[in-house]
Amino acid sequence: MSLSTYLCRLTYLTTRTHIANAHSASSRARDMEWRTVAVIVLVVSLCFFIVPIKVGPDKTVEDAKLFADYIARYNKTYRNDSTEYKERFDNFQKSLRHIERLNGLRSSQESAYYGLTEFSDLSEDEFLQQTLLPDLSLRGQKHTTASYYHQHSVNSVDRMKRMIGIPSKFDWRDRGVVGPVVNQESCGACWAFSTIGVAESMYAIRNGTLYSFSVQEMIDCMPGNYGCQGGDICSLLSWLLASKTKIISENDYPLTRRTDLCRLSKITAKTSGIKITDFTCDSFIDAETELLTLLTHGPVAAAVNAISWQNYLGGVIQYHCDGSFNSLNHAIQIVGYDMRASIPHYIIKNSWGSSFGDKGYIYIAVGKNLCGIANQVSSLDVI
Questions:
Q1: 18 is a catalytic site residue
Q2: What are the transmembrane regions (predicted)?
Q3: Prediction pTM value
Protein backbone atom coordinates (compact mmCIF):
# COMPACT_ATOMS: atom_id res chain seq x y z
CA MET A 1 0.00 0.00 0.00
CA SER A 2 1.39 3.44 -0.92
CA LEU A 3 1.74 6.13 1.70
CA SER A 4 -0.93 8.30 0.07
CA THR A 5 -3.46 5.43 0.05
CA TYR A 6 -2.76 4.68 3.69
CA LEU A 7 -3.29 8.33 4.65
CA CYS A 8 -6.54 8.51 2.74
CA ARG A 9 -7.92 5.40 4.47
CA LEU A 10 -6.81 6.59 7.86
CA THR A 11 -8.44 10.00 7.34
CA TYR A 12 -11.63 8.37 6.08
CA LEU A 13 -11.96 6.04 9.09
CA THR A 14 -11.19 8.80 11.53
CA THR A 15 -13.75 11.06 9.94
CA ARG A 16 -16.42 8.33 10.10
CA THR A 17 -15.84 8.08 13.81
CA HIS A 18 -16.38 11.80 14.14
CA ILE A 19 -19.71 11.44 12.29
CA ALA A 20 -20.89 8.68 14.58
CA ASN A 21 -20.05 10.78 17.59
CA ALA A 22 -21.73 13.74 16.01
CA HIS A 23 -25.08 11.82 15.65
CA SER A 24 -25.10 11.03 19.34
CA ALA A 25 -24.38 14.63 20.32
CA SER A 26 -26.90 17.29 21.11
CA SER A 27 -28.58 19.41 18.45
CA ARG A 28 -26.03 22.09 19.04
CA ALA A 29 -23.45 19.79 17.39
CA ARG A 30 -25.46 19.37 14.16
CA ASP A 31 -23.58 22.23 12.48
CA MET A 32 -20.30 20.42 13.22
CA GLU A 33 -21.71 17.27 11.58
CA TRP A 34 -22.31 19.09 8.31
CA ARG A 35 -18.83 20.51 8.39
CA THR A 36 -17.45 16.99 8.98
CA VAL A 37 -19.39 15.61 6.01
CA ALA A 38 -17.94 18.33 3.83
CA VAL A 39 -14.44 17.37 4.96
CA ILE A 40 -15.12 13.70 4.08
CA VAL A 41 -16.22 14.62 0.56
CA LEU A 42 -13.13 16.78 0.09
CA VAL A 43 -10.69 14.13 1.39
CA VAL A 44 -12.22 11.30 -0.63
CA SER A 45 -12.14 13.48 -3.76
CA LEU A 46 -8.49 14.32 -3.24
CA CYS A 47 -7.64 10.64 -2.84
CA PHE A 48 -8.66 10.06 -6.44
CA PHE A 49 -6.19 12.69 -7.68
CA ILE A 50 -3.21 12.34 -5.36
CA VAL A 51 -0.07 10.93 -6.97
CA PRO A 52 1.10 8.00 -4.80
CA ILE A 53 4.21 8.76 -2.74
CA LYS A 54 6.82 6.03 -2.91
CA VAL A 55 9.17 5.93 0.03
CA GLY A 56 12.51 4.55 -1.15
CA PRO A 57 14.85 2.56 1.04
CA ASP A 58 17.14 4.55 3.33
CA LYS A 59 20.60 4.14 1.84
CA THR A 60 22.43 5.63 4.80
CA VAL A 61 22.51 2.36 6.76
CA GLU A 62 23.63 0.41 3.70
CA ASP A 63 26.25 3.07 2.90
CA ALA A 64 27.56 2.96 6.47
CA LYS A 65 28.12 -0.79 6.20
CA LEU A 66 29.97 -0.33 2.91
CA PHE A 67 32.03 2.45 4.48
CA ALA A 68 33.04 0.24 7.41
CA ASP A 69 34.24 -2.41 4.96
CA TYR A 70 36.00 0.29 2.92
CA ILE A 71 37.89 1.61 5.98
CA ALA A 72 39.09 -1.90 6.82
CA ARG A 73 40.03 -2.77 3.24
CA TYR A 74 42.12 0.34 2.64
CA ASN A 75 43.38 0.61 6.23
CA LYS A 76 42.07 4.14 6.70
CA THR A 77 43.07 5.79 9.98
CA TYR A 78 40.14 8.10 10.80
CA ARG A 79 37.81 5.51 12.37
CA ASN A 80 38.09 7.14 15.82
CA ASP A 81 38.08 10.76 14.64
CA SER A 82 34.40 11.67 14.52
CA THR A 83 34.88 14.94 12.61
CA GLU A 84 37.02 13.47 9.85
CA TYR A 85 34.92 10.31 9.80
CA LYS A 86 31.80 12.35 8.97
CA GLU A 87 33.63 14.32 6.29
CA ARG A 88 35.02 11.16 4.69
CA PHE A 89 31.64 9.42 4.90
CA ASP A 90 29.99 12.35 3.11
CA ASN A 91 32.61 12.15 0.34
CA PHE A 92 32.18 8.37 0.22
CA GLN A 93 28.41 8.70 -0.27
CA LYS A 94 28.93 11.21 -3.07
CA SER A 95 31.32 8.76 -4.72
CA LEU A 96 28.75 5.97 -4.43
CA ARG A 97 26.07 8.05 -6.14
CA HIS A 98 28.55 9.17 -8.83
CA ILE A 99 29.57 5.56 -9.43
CA GLU A 100 25.90 4.59 -9.84
CA ARG A 101 25.36 7.36 -12.39
CA LEU A 102 28.44 6.51 -14.46
CA ASN A 103 27.73 2.79 -14.51
CA GLY A 104 24.16 3.55 -15.57
CA LEU A 105 25.52 5.22 -18.71
CA ARG A 106 27.60 2.28 -19.95
CA SER A 107 26.85 1.47 -23.59
CA SER A 108 28.41 -2.02 -23.71
CA GLN A 109 30.24 -4.62 -21.65
CA GLU A 110 33.53 -3.13 -22.83
CA SER A 111 32.67 0.37 -21.59
CA ALA A 112 34.46 1.78 -18.56
CA TYR A 113 33.03 0.69 -15.22
CA TYR A 114 33.46 2.32 -11.85
CA GLY A 115 33.58 1.31 -8.19
CA LEU A 116 35.32 1.99 -4.91
CA THR A 117 39.04 2.83 -4.98
CA GLU A 118 41.48 4.16 -2.41
CA PHE A 119 40.46 7.66 -3.57
CA SER A 120 36.70 7.26 -3.04
CA ASP A 121 36.69 9.04 0.33
CA LEU A 122 38.22 12.20 -1.15
CA SER A 123 36.28 15.16 -2.47
CA GLU A 124 36.93 15.95 -6.12
CA ASP A 125 39.04 18.97 -5.12
CA GLU A 126 41.09 16.88 -2.67
CA PHE A 127 41.68 14.29 -5.39
CA LEU A 128 42.88 17.05 -7.71
CA GLN A 129 45.14 18.68 -5.13
CA GLN A 130 46.58 15.52 -3.54
CA THR A 131 46.86 13.10 -6.48
CA LEU A 132 46.98 15.27 -9.60
CA LEU A 133 48.78 18.45 -10.73
CA PRO A 134 46.30 21.37 -10.84
CA ASP A 135 48.77 23.68 -12.63
CA LEU A 136 50.02 21.22 -15.25
CA SER A 137 48.24 22.98 -18.11
CA LEU A 138 49.96 26.26 -17.16
CA ARG A 139 53.33 24.53 -17.10
CA GLY A 140 52.60 22.90 -20.44
CA GLN A 141 51.36 26.04 -22.17
CA LYS A 142 54.85 27.51 -22.57
CA HIS A 143 55.90 24.60 -24.78
CA THR A 144 53.33 25.40 -27.48
CA THR A 145 55.63 28.16 -28.80
CA ALA A 146 58.88 26.18 -28.50
CA SER A 147 60.87 25.04 -31.54
CA TYR A 148 60.38 21.38 -30.63
CA TYR A 149 56.57 21.67 -30.56
CA HIS A 150 54.48 20.64 -33.58
CA GLN A 151 50.74 20.76 -34.19
CA HIS A 152 49.84 17.73 -36.34
CA SER A 153 46.83 17.68 -38.63
CA VAL A 154 45.67 14.93 -41.00
CA ASN A 155 42.77 15.09 -43.45
CA SER A 156 40.39 12.15 -43.92
CA VAL A 157 42.18 10.79 -47.04
CA ASP A 158 45.60 10.83 -45.37
CA ARG A 159 44.03 9.31 -42.26
CA MET A 160 42.78 6.28 -44.19
CA LYS A 161 46.16 5.84 -45.94
CA ARG A 162 48.00 5.93 -42.62
CA MET A 163 45.56 3.47 -41.03
CA ILE A 164 46.25 0.98 -43.81
CA GLY A 165 49.96 1.21 -43.14
CA ILE A 166 49.96 0.36 -39.42
CA PRO A 167 49.08 -2.81 -37.48
CA SER A 168 45.51 -2.97 -36.16
CA LYS A 169 46.88 -3.82 -32.71
CA PHE A 170 50.22 -2.93 -31.13
CA ASP A 171 51.15 -3.55 -27.50
CA TRP A 172 54.73 -3.01 -26.34
CA ARG A 173 54.07 -5.15 -23.25
CA ASP A 174 53.97 -8.20 -25.53
CA ARG A 175 57.58 -7.50 -26.51
CA GLY A 176 58.86 -7.38 -22.95
CA VAL A 177 60.00 -3.76 -23.07
CA VAL A 178 57.57 -2.20 -20.56
CA GLY A 179 58.56 -2.12 -16.89
CA PRO A 180 56.27 -2.96 -13.95
CA VAL A 181 53.61 -0.52 -12.80
CA VAL A 182 54.89 1.71 -10.00
CA ASN A 183 53.10 3.74 -7.34
CA GLN A 184 53.95 7.42 -6.99
CA GLU A 185 51.95 7.55 -3.74
CA SER A 186 51.82 11.11 -2.37
CA CYS A 187 54.72 12.33 -4.53
CA GLY A 188 53.37 14.41 -7.42
CA ALA A 189 56.07 13.31 -9.84
CA CYS A 190 53.94 11.60 -12.48
CA TRP A 191 55.89 13.69 -15.03
CA ALA A 192 59.13 11.93 -13.95
CA PHE A 193 57.63 8.45 -13.65
CA SER A 194 56.11 8.62 -17.14
CA THR A 195 59.21 10.07 -18.82
CA ILE A 196 61.64 7.60 -17.25
CA GLY A 197 59.25 4.75 -18.01
CA VAL A 198 59.38 5.65 -21.70
CA ALA A 199 63.19 5.98 -21.54
CA GLU A 200 63.41 2.46 -20.07
CA SER A 201 61.29 1.10 -22.92
CA MET A 202 63.27 2.91 -25.61
CA TYR A 203 66.54 1.57 -24.19
CA ALA A 204 65.08 -1.96 -24.13
CA ILE A 205 63.87 -1.65 -27.73
CA ARG A 206 67.32 -0.49 -28.80
CA ASN A 207 69.44 -2.89 -26.73
CA GLY A 208 67.19 -5.83 -25.92
CA THR A 209 67.40 -5.49 -22.12
CA LEU A 210 64.91 -3.81 -19.77
CA TYR A 211 66.55 -1.85 -16.95
CA SER A 212 65.05 0.37 -14.25
CA PHE A 213 66.41 3.92 -14.40
CA SER A 214 66.22 6.55 -11.66
CA VAL A 215 63.02 8.51 -11.26
CA GLN A 216 64.42 9.94 -8.03
CA GLU A 217 67.27 11.56 -9.94
CA MET A 218 64.69 13.54 -11.92
CA ILE A 219 62.79 14.51 -8.75
CA ASP A 220 65.92 15.76 -6.99
CA CYS A 221 67.96 17.21 -9.83
CA MET A 222 65.54 18.79 -12.32
CA PRO A 223 66.19 22.59 -12.11
CA GLY A 224 63.37 24.73 -10.78
CA ASN A 225 62.62 22.79 -7.60
CA TYR A 226 59.86 20.80 -9.24
CA GLY A 227 60.28 17.62 -7.23
CA CYS A 228 57.20 16.00 -5.76
CA GLN A 229 55.32 19.30 -6.09
CA GLY A 230 55.02 18.82 -9.84
CA GLY A 231 56.80 19.35 -13.12
CA ASP A 232 56.06 18.48 -16.73
CA ILE A 233 57.34 16.03 -19.32
CA CYS A 234 58.50 18.52 -21.96
CA SER A 235 60.51 20.63 -19.50
CA LEU A 236 62.24 17.51 -18.21
CA LEU A 237 63.14 16.27 -21.70
CA SER A 238 64.32 19.72 -22.77
CA TRP A 239 66.65 19.91 -19.75
CA LEU A 240 67.96 16.36 -20.20
CA LEU A 241 68.80 16.99 -23.86
CA ALA A 242 70.30 20.47 -23.43
CA SER A 243 72.39 19.56 -20.38
CA LYS A 244 73.34 16.11 -21.68
CA THR A 245 72.50 14.82 -18.21
CA LYS A 246 73.02 11.11 -17.78
CA ILE A 247 70.06 9.10 -16.47
CA ILE A 248 71.51 6.53 -14.10
CA SER A 249 70.05 3.29 -12.81
CA GLU A 250 67.57 3.11 -9.96
CA ASN A 251 69.99 0.88 -8.05
CA ASP A 252 72.52 3.73 -8.02
CA TYR A 253 69.95 6.42 -7.20
CA PRO A 254 67.03 4.69 -5.40
CA LEU A 255 63.46 5.95 -5.22
CA THR A 256 62.42 7.73 -1.99
CA ARG A 257 59.27 9.52 -3.22
CA ARG A 258 60.31 12.78 -1.57
CA THR A 259 62.24 15.80 -2.80
CA ASP A 260 65.85 15.65 -1.62
CA LEU A 261 69.12 17.40 -2.48
CA CYS A 262 70.54 16.29 -5.83
CA ARG A 263 73.28 13.70 -5.35
CA LEU A 264 74.15 13.33 -9.03
CA SER A 265 77.64 14.87 -8.81
CA LYS A 266 78.64 12.33 -6.18
CA ILE A 267 77.38 9.36 -8.17
CA THR A 268 77.80 10.06 -11.90
CA ALA A 269 81.54 9.53 -12.16
CA LYS A 270 81.21 5.99 -10.85
CA THR A 271 78.18 4.86 -12.85
CA SER A 272 76.98 4.37 -16.39
CA GLY A 273 73.64 5.53 -17.74
CA ILE A 274 71.70 6.68 -20.77
CA LYS A 275 71.18 10.06 -22.43
CA ILE A 276 68.32 11.60 -24.37
CA THR A 277 69.37 12.17 -27.99
CA ASP A 278 66.09 13.57 -29.35
CA PHE A 279 62.50 14.17 -28.28
CA THR A 280 59.17 15.57 -29.46
CA CYS A 281 56.50 17.50 -27.63
CA ASP A 282 53.57 17.58 -30.02
CA SER A 283 49.81 17.92 -30.36
CA PHE A 284 47.82 15.23 -32.19
CA ILE A 285 44.32 16.56 -31.47
CA ASP A 286 43.32 16.42 -35.14
CA ALA A 287 45.70 13.63 -36.06
CA GLU A 288 45.26 10.65 -33.76
CA THR A 289 46.11 8.29 -36.61
CA GLU A 290 49.55 9.89 -36.63
CA LEU A 291 49.73 9.23 -32.90
CA LEU A 292 49.01 5.56 -33.59
CA THR A 293 51.85 5.56 -36.12
CA LEU A 294 54.16 7.15 -33.55
CA LEU A 295 53.28 4.39 -31.09
CA THR A 296 54.76 1.79 -33.44
CA HIS A 297 58.10 3.56 -32.90
CA GLY A 298 57.83 3.11 -29.12
CA PRO A 299 55.77 4.03 -26.04
CA VAL A 300 55.18 7.75 -25.47
CA ALA A 301 54.53 10.00 -22.48
CA ALA A 302 51.45 12.23 -22.47
CA ALA A 303 49.66 14.81 -20.36
CA VAL A 304 46.02 13.95 -19.59
CA ASN A 305 42.99 15.04 -17.60
CA ALA A 306 42.52 12.32 -14.96
CA ILE A 307 39.93 13.98 -12.71
CA SER A 308 37.26 11.47 -13.79
CA TRP A 309 39.49 8.48 -12.97
CA GLN A 310 38.91 8.73 -9.22
CA ASN A 311 36.65 5.65 -9.14
CA TYR A 312 37.79 3.89 -12.32
CA LEU A 313 38.03 0.08 -12.18
CA GLY A 314 38.40 -1.02 -15.80
CA GLY A 315 36.96 -0.99 -19.31
CA VAL A 316 37.31 1.67 -22.02
CA ILE A 317 36.63 5.30 -21.19
CA GLN A 318 34.35 6.70 -23.91
CA TYR A 319 32.58 9.64 -22.26
CA HIS A 320 32.71 12.12 -19.38
CA CYS A 321 36.42 12.95 -19.70
CA ASP A 322 37.11 16.54 -20.75
CA GLY A 323 39.82 16.86 -23.38
CA SER A 324 40.59 20.58 -23.19
CA PHE A 325 44.20 21.71 -22.75
CA ASN A 326 43.30 23.73 -19.66
CA SER A 327 42.09 20.57 -17.92
CA LEU A 328 45.41 18.69 -18.12
CA ASN A 329 46.51 17.54 -14.65
CA HIS A 330 48.40 14.24 -14.88
CA ALA A 331 51.11 12.46 -16.88
CA ILE A 332 51.03 8.85 -18.11
CA GLN A 333 52.58 6.46 -20.65
CA ILE A 334 50.81 5.18 -23.75
CA VAL A 335 52.24 1.71 -24.41
CA GLY A 336 50.02 0.57 -27.26
CA TYR A 337 46.61 0.53 -28.88
CA ASP A 338 43.96 -1.94 -30.04
CA MET A 339 41.92 -0.99 -33.10
CA ARG A 340 40.48 -4.52 -33.38
CA ALA A 341 38.50 -4.17 -30.17
CA SER A 342 34.78 -3.38 -30.27
CA ILE A 343 35.80 -0.03 -28.76
CA PRO A 344 39.18 0.90 -30.31
CA HIS A 345 41.40 2.22 -27.53
CA TYR A 346 44.79 3.30 -26.24
CA ILE A 347 46.58 1.25 -23.59
CA ILE A 348 47.62 3.54 -20.73
CA LYS A 349 50.21 2.71 -18.09
CA ASN A 350 49.49 4.74 -14.96
CA SER A 351 51.58 5.35 -11.82
CA TRP A 352 49.07 4.71 -9.03
CA GLY A 353 50.11 1.13 -8.33
CA SER A 354 48.96 -2.20 -9.74
CA SER A 355 45.83 -2.29 -7.56
CA PHE A 356 44.32 0.66 -9.43
CA GLY A 357 42.32 0.15 -12.63
CA ASP A 358 43.15 -2.98 -14.62
CA LYS A 359 46.35 -4.01 -12.80
CA GLY A 360 47.57 -0.42 -13.05
CA TYR A 361 46.37 0.15 -16.63
CA ILE A 362 43.61 2.32 -18.08
CA TYR A 363 41.98 2.22 -21.52
CA ILE A 364 40.83 5.31 -23.41
CA ALA A 365 38.85 5.30 -26.67
CA VAL A 366 40.72 6.45 -29.78
CA GLY A 367 39.56 9.36 -31.91
CA LYS A 368 37.98 12.04 -29.71
CA ASN A 369 40.93 13.38 -27.71
CA LEU A 370 39.24 11.95 -24.63
CA CYS A 371 40.86 13.01 -21.36
CA GLY A 372 43.03 15.33 -23.47
CA ILE A 373 45.27 12.42 -24.43
CA ALA A 374 46.37 13.98 -27.73
CA ASN A 375 47.08 17.51 -26.44
CA GLN A 376 50.74 17.12 -25.49
CA VAL A 377 52.52 13.89 -26.40
CA SER A 378 56.26 13.23 -26.11
CA SER A 379 58.37 10.59 -27.81
CA LEU A 380 62.10 10.23 -27.23
CA ASP A 381 65.25 8.44 -28.32
CA VAL A 382 68.13 7.37 -26.07
CA ILE A 383 71.71 6.25 -26.37
A1: no
A2: 34-53
A3: 0.84
